[in-house]
């Protein structure tokens, strides 16, 4: 990371950035106050002035990664209006983020967002806004919209999780299978639109 940050000029963002650098290099086991302090060239107590221990550190890192992911997805889908194109671009953006930053993706998806939490609620609302953009042309009721959102999220997250775990061992391109799944999601959303609640 370059020269160590002096303890007195250390900011919370410095700590988070160092933690993400450790995460990228070494995986989730590196998300600890002691490891991040070594990365910064400081003593661990200096971090406690900004984040109260490992749980707070992991939370701050997860929130930052969520913000990075949302911005990544926004850039990948900017200017698109067609719902199917949005779904494909959003699905590709999520998978590309997971491939580019596998440790970040795991930390992000293991962190539970809560609408009652003032720090995480805006992130959930941003994800909901995107999914509503994808699904708006289907004119779904609120119940059907929730079903469709859950299905899309479960399919994409599940595929990526299984892929990252190395469990897709059959001789078939995972890229091709992912494209088929996205196409199938379009058909499944149309099915949700037609069925009675």
Question: Which terms summarize this structure?
Answer:
single chain; 197 residues; mainly alpha; Arc Repressor Mutant, subunit A; Tetracycline Repressor, domain 2; 2 domains; 0% strand; elongated
Summarize the structure.
Helices cover 70% and strands 0% of the residues. It has 197 residues and is mainly alpha-helical. Helix 1 (12-26) packs across helix 4 and helix 5 (83-100) packs across helix 7 (121-135).
Your description of this structure?
It is a single chain. With 197 residues, the chain is mainly alpha-helical. The protein has two domains: 1-52, Orthogonal Bundle (Arc Repressor Mutant, subunit A), CATH 1.10.10; 63-194, Tetracycline Repressor, domain 2 (Orthogonal Bundle). Helix content is 70%, strand content 0%. The chain has helices at 12-26, 33-40, 45-48, 54-77, 83-100, 102-110, 121-135, 142-164, 174-194. The radius of gyration is 19 Å and the shape is elongated. 23% of the residues are buried. The mean pLDDT is 92. Residues 9-69 form the HTH tetR-type domain.
């Amino acid at each position: 990371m370059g020269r160590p940050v002096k303890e007195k000029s250390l900011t919370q963002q410095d700590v988070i950035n160092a933690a993400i650098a450790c995460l990228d290099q070494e995986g989730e086991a590196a998300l600890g106050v002691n490891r991040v302090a070594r990365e910064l060239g400081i003593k661990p107590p200096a971090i406690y002035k900004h984040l109260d221990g490992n749980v707070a550190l992991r939370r701050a890192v997860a929130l930052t990664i969520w913000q990075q992911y949302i911005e990544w997805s926004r850039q990948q889908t900017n200017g698109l209006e067609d719902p199917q194109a949005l779904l494909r671009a959003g699905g590709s953006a999520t998978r590309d983020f997971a491939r580019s930053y596998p440790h970040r993706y795991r930390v992000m998806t293991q962190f539970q967002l809560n609408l009652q939490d003032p720090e995480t609620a805006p992130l959930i609302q941003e994800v909901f806004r995107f999914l509503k953009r994808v699904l708006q042309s289907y004119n779904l009721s609120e119940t059907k919209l929730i079903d469709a959102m859950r299905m899309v999220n479960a399919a994409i997250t599940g595929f990526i999780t299984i892929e990252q775990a190395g469990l897709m061992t059959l001789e078939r391109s995972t890229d091709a299978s992912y494209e088929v799944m996205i196409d199938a999601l379009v058909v499944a959303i149309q099915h949700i639109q037609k069925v009675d609640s």
